[in-house]
Specification:
This protein is mainly beta. The protein has one helix at about 75-80, and strands at about 5-10, 15-20, 25-30, 40-45, 45-55, 105, 110-115, 120, 125-130. Helices cover about 5% and strands about 35% of the residues. About 5% of the residues are buried.
């Protein structure tokens, strides 16, 4: 079984980097997700005992007193860090500058959906899946 410091790639594209003991996550280690987010934790027998999730843009999740994008403040994280845009310039996602969306297509988060072809392609226009 895996033992000591190392990394382990899961079939989902997620990677674990940290300590392993008897084939399980043990001690300090980080899960790095394909979208860029990460979960840094202290693990015991493969389960996290404490940890912190950080989104791809650097926003850190807090399980208590979480005020991001609540009913009183609907700003994106980039707007909180950099300020609001002038009137008439809308920010529709957390990305600044936003991705270019092809005409007639919709942003799905991992690619673009084209309702005419019913196909979703990634941001490099490579096929992802049929809708």
């Amino acid at each position: 079984r895996m033992e000591g410091p190392g990394s382990y790639a899961l079939a989902t594209g997620t990677e674990y980097r940290g300590a392993l003991r008897d084939g399980l996550f043990e001690g300090r280690g980080t899960l790095v997700f394909p979208g860029g987010g990460s979960f840094c934790a202290v693990w015991h027998r493969g389960r996290p005992t404490e940890g912190k999730y950080t989104f791809a843009d650097g926003l850190e999740y807090k399980d208590k007193k979480w005020h991001y994008c609540d009913g009183y403040d609907r700003r994106f994280y980039t707007e909180i860090c950099s300020g609001l845009k002038p009137g008439g310039i809308s920010q529709l996602t957390n990305l600044d500058p936003p991705r270019k969306i092809p005409d007639g297509c919709y942003d799905c988060g991992d690619g673009f959906y084209n309702p005419e072809t019913r196909v979703i392609v990634d941001y490099r226009l490579r096929f992802l899946r049929n809708a």
